[in-house]
Amino acid sequence: MLQRRIPFIIALIPLVVLIVLQIFIISSFGADALMGASQVGLLVTSAVAVLISVCFYRFDYSAFEEAISKSIASVSTAIVMLMLIGSLSGSWMISGIVPYLIKEGLQIISPAIFLPTSCILCALISIVTGSSWTTIATIGIALIGVGRANGFDDGWTAGAIISGAYFGDKMSPLSDTTVLASSTVGTPLFEHIKYMTKTTVPTLITTILIYSVASILMTGEGDSSTDAYIEGIESTFCVSHWLLVVPFLTGYMIYKKIPAVPVMFFATLMGVVASLIFQDGILEQIGEGDIFKGAMTSVFGATNVETGNEELNNLVATGGIAGVMNTIWLIICAMVFGGVMTAGGFLEVIMEKMVAMATRAWSLVSSTVASGIILNAVTCDQYLAVILTGSLFKDKYKKLGYEQRLLSRTVEDGTTVTSVLVPWSTCGMTQATILGVATITYLPYCFFNYLSPIATILMSLRIKEKSPNA
Length: 470
Known about the structure:
Number of helices: 25
Largest sheet: none
Strand content: under 5%
Mean pLDDT: 83
Radius of gyration: 23 Å
Structural class: mainly alpha
Order of helices and strands: HHHHHHHHHHHHHHHHHHHHHHHHH
Shape: globular
Distance between the termini: 48 Å
Helix content: over 70%
Low-confidence stretches: none
């Protein structure tokens, strides 16, 4: 029997079920939602979509199995990257690299300008590396420590880190999402980047101003533990300047455009070597007298180092690869949901409705932004969201007489930077895990990430209708 097309209202049911489940899950489990409840929610929603398709619209169940396999395969590299990030964060912490950066940051960065400085620093590093993930996994972890020592709320600090990192990721010619957005739409890379400055630069300036005011207002409000942190770090770790060799070599490999996976692997390996050279006492403590066991544990397992300061103990504790397994589990469940939504035609029906609604410049841009956000939530992967958004709207922009660079910019403004705001997406899950701050906690403070789509919609109001000059 031939399968029937799912109506638009019915296509929305899985999304509504997911949102409702997530509301109950987050209200019940809070930050522990990633421990299993969110995963179950995604699987239940996937089951609802399959039941609707098979029982009422005559879909073949085997099509869902194939779609799920392809969907999970599409994020295999991201899963490997996440495992390497977990191992890198462990080795860089135990080697003393991150503690060294925290100590220097506490001595150099004034609390009065901490948030804007964090944002700008992450933006610069992300532009150079082309990766928000790498930036957050390295300097981001150190800045979280600096923020805590200076009494800043984790949500504000994580928001500043993520805002800066995603600005750099969006504007860097080395960024895979930037290249993907421009190539999918057919806009030359540097023309795409240049055109994005019209919305991105004002948004970043606004974001920095917000963080500047917030830093000034919050300075002195929290309980600063600067001296205690510095004392604890210096008494526990060997914080030699030679430790900087590792991040410098990592940066050089990134500059030479070596692929991310080998860079993260060698960065982890260098961290282990540094720990063997500088932190043998800590490795003995972790490995219960066995240095080799301590070095291996720092990469794959949980580590606890006694510094004499409870807050600092929590900061330098690491989870290694084991610490990201809940996130990997969640990514797999999210891709099951994305595969089911694609195979059942739910996604196609929703996106067709979004494209059809666009008739003028502002509605076209607004629909593109809304589609990008919906695709981030449904596919749970920013790369798929970028490709699908660009592909779906490409002909529509041509038909209405608008330049393709308007589309590529809107895709970046509405899709790339909002991916990290979806708690169950690969970006949202990864950054929450790396920073140890729940997505729902940092979301209100990622000003750049949700001001960007607003800015691009407002800019569309100035575009002349059916004009080739956007």
